[in-house]
Amino acid sequence: MNLKELWQTVLGEVELTISKASFITWFKSTKIHSKKNGIITVSAPNGFTKEWLENKYNKLIFKILRNNSPDIKEIQFVIGDEKKSVDTTNKTVPKIMPSNIGDQLNFQEFNFNKETNLNPKYTFDNFVVGSFNELAQAASRAIVDHMGTMYNPLFIYGGVGLGKTHLIQAIGNELFKKHPTKKIKYLSAEKYTSELIDAIQKKGMDSFKNKCNKIDALIIDDIQFIAGKEKTQEEFFHMFNSLYQQNKQIIISSDKPPKSISTLEERLRSRFEGGMIADISYPDLETRTAILKNKIEEKKINISDDVVNYIASNIQNNIRELEGALNRVMAFAQINKTTPNIKTVPQILSQIINAPKKKTNYKNIFKTVADFYDIHINDLIDKSRKKELVHPRQITMYLIREELNSSYPYIGEKLGGRDHTTVMYACQKIRKEIVDNELFQQEINLIKERIYN
Ligand code: ADP
Ligand code: MG
To answer: Given 3-state DSSP classes, what are the helix, strand and coil percentages for the chain, each rounded to the nearest 5?
Structure first.
């Protein structure tokens, strides 16, 4: 594979992994320059994009590059056309790899409303409700009937692929249908940030603020992205207040509850907590089956119950994977002009289902916990007794014990030479907290999920 093809493959896979908006914002104008001694050089159009690629996407890009070319050791990002580059954007469609063929089919269904940014495919009608998401769904429905007056803001949180984006977009689509003259706007927090930065750079803040102020219902997806970004939070806070005071509806999604977004400014946290907070957890077998049946009906395809049952029983992580599996089965059947049956399906899905149980190590647990709470890895080792550091530290001890079965003295040593009794105490405390507090249990599940992804 030459350099150009390599980068096309990376772009193709990244596009499947992140949102369309993020892809366009951060990847559209990237180019590959060279590969020398295992170092790949990639250019970004400006310093801001370069920083984002380095900080947020480096790992993802690296993983994909390595899968395709195992000799790659490092990626270097540069700004602009410092060297002659190979243009890979806007050319042929990225190559479809057999392993992601299903996702690719799924991904092509978008048809955005330019005014609202909403994707009309997300509706309440095709949103299956079970005990894992019923509170969030009910609150969302209520908002449609009481825009701006009942729950404000509505804050929905949950793990990856569990329906947050679907649900908040369904609210938007329904509001748009009901109030066609009102301004409904959906933005990912990343897109909001990039528009804000654009406005600052082009000295267009007044018009940006004006535009924001005219919104009647603002939907912000994945708000955790603005954590730690002071300037963005400040602007967001002002916009939030201004809309809130005018009784405009605000809907927010996040991968964790407000109290766990540690570098969220206090004043924003208290605003978020001032409205309605609803979580989405994990669907049970019955709901997973219902979701599959729903999709099958929607797509008017023919798949037998035993196949549905096989998929629902074996794909348990999240709804996105469930859909991915169904799409893969359909794609295979289409290409081979066969009907999926219980003999072929396990084979088609074996790559996903029998993936070896992922392993982890203490360093990865350190990193995941630190990332989750937006603190530095050193904070886990340090002696500081600050509450916001002590708790993540105890969680780290607990997770190393649970996931790696390490001894208490070993864990103490890795966490800055602490005594084994300290570790024992921490593990007991966290275990108890998990039993006593369902929200905390979910928080731990979110962290575990990240450890293995
Ligand atoms: P999140 O934003 O939480 O990561 P998404 O909203 O993107 O998850 O959901 C992932 C996929 O699963 C989407 O294609 C969505 O339509 C589908 N999905 C999620 N929840 C449901 C549900 N309750 N019923 C039907 N489909 C769902
Ligand atoms: Mg989402």
So the answer is: 55, 10, 35
